[in-house]
């Protein structure tokens, strides 16, 4: 039977890896023996975090990527493949989340809407597009894990562009899984609930309380609550799981 040790010596890219969930995913994957490329627009921070992980004996490298730029994505992928020597999986975690809410549909800034869609949706697509040729060479075991949000499942108010972008990620995952299944590439979505990371510090306390009080497990959600599901979807344990959206939110909303 397959086991999590199958991450040993595998090669992954995690976007949005400088902090929050992306950093937690990177550490969890690297601790299981994988070589991880950390990609983020926060170039100084991602390099600093990579050095900390290297000091723990983990195999990581860091590169800058701007998901709003196709050229930046292509360069990041080229740099990543140069150090990894191949690719087993991609975790699309990077997204524009801070400062994208607060206003209703009638007052939402169209330019901000476009920016959110450009980074969260188009950026995820272009990053996946750049990864696919390399994933096709992984002996029918390639993985893409897209990070959405359970806001897309319950329709969080005054957060329309973000909610719409994460709904698009769920839909895009399903389409990608249909296209890439013949190559043995599994594509899935993980939809975390409100997690205590830097990107959610702007969320008002009453929204945090709404989540905690509405969960089957009544406590705040931490990054480590999500890492196990991502690791599972990257491992050989999930070789017949594709096109799925898995909410990880302590039972706040069900899929």
TrEMBL record:
What the entry lists under InterPro entries is as follows:
NAD(P)-bd_dom_sf (IPR036291), Sc_DH/Rdtase_CS (IPR020904), SDR_fam (IPR002347)
* Keywords of the record: Oxidoreductase
Signal peptide: which range, if any?
none
What Pfam family does this protein match (any one)? adh_short_C2
**Is the Acetylation keyword given for this protein?**
no
Presence of the UniProt keyword Oxidoreductase in the record: yes
Q: Name one GO molecular function term.
A: oxidoreductase activity
PROSITE patterns the record matches: ADH_SHORT
Family of the protein in this entry? Belongs to the short-chain dehydrogenases/reductases (SDR) family.
The protein's name is NAD(P)-dependent dehydrogenase, short-chain alcohol dehydrogenase family
